[in-house]
Amino acid sequence: MQIPFFKYQGTGNDFVIIDQRDRQYLQRTDQEIIERLCDRRFGIGADGLMLLQQKEGYDFEMVYFNSDGRESSMCGNGGRCITAFAHRLGVFSDTCRFWAIDGAHDAVVREDGWVELKMIDVQDIEQGSDFYYLNTGSPHYVTFRDDLADLDVFQAGRAIRYSDRFRAEGTNVNFVQTQENGITVATYERGVEDETLSCGTGVTAAAIAYHLQYGKGVDKVPIKVKGGELEVRFQAGTDGFSEIWLCGPAELVFTGEIDRL
Q1: 199 in active site
Q2: How does pLDDT run across 38-48, given as a tens digit for each residue?
Q3: Which residue of the set 38, 81, 96, 199 is catalytic?
Q4: Catalytic residue among 75, 81, 96, 247
Q5: Are residue 93 and residue 205 in the same domain, yes or no?
Q6: What's 35's domain CATH number?
Q7: Is 96 a catalytic residue?
């Protein structure tokens, strides 16, 4: 069976997207097939795979899998890319509301091609001696460094992700360096088990941690990642953070068909 697919990227975070509104090509249990499709040598190659599906009461449903083939928690850049994809298909005009594993999300496609995605509210934030731990749709460990250019993100991130605390469930690990205007972020992602060029939920977590650590009064954070530039804006209150929007480009790379492997 041939599977039509679309390859998208958002600041270097890349995804295979399959339209399943009218025909089901993959099941949630097809872990080996999905892992193979994401393989950069034997498949299409991607950090993750998404299914665009019908969902009553919403414009669509986003079902996300990490490159290991396992259905995973929310992916921010994935949410922006699948929004751009649905917009390309004519599912909506400028604004949409879709369902993901962490609930409902609003999104906007701007004229300049940037996609703005509303993230879940964040309330429970753990502050350690040198880190913040919070969930922005996915769990994130955030720590600040002043040597990001020289840091081995894979080794440093893997050490935290496979520490005693996180070994079983895993966590994403973000290293953040402050800049004159905003922050630079590097992320080790669980499920991918490597550094990625960008992580949407990760930069969201980093922006919130930056506000808590340095930026009281700041409600919009420009962010640089290895794959490009993003922006996170939010409202900070006494009981947490709301109106959190992850903003950045989401671009079609190529389309094709591939045999169900």
Answers
A1: yes
A2: 999 999 999 99
A3: 199
A4: 75
A5: no
A6: 3.10.310.10
A7: no
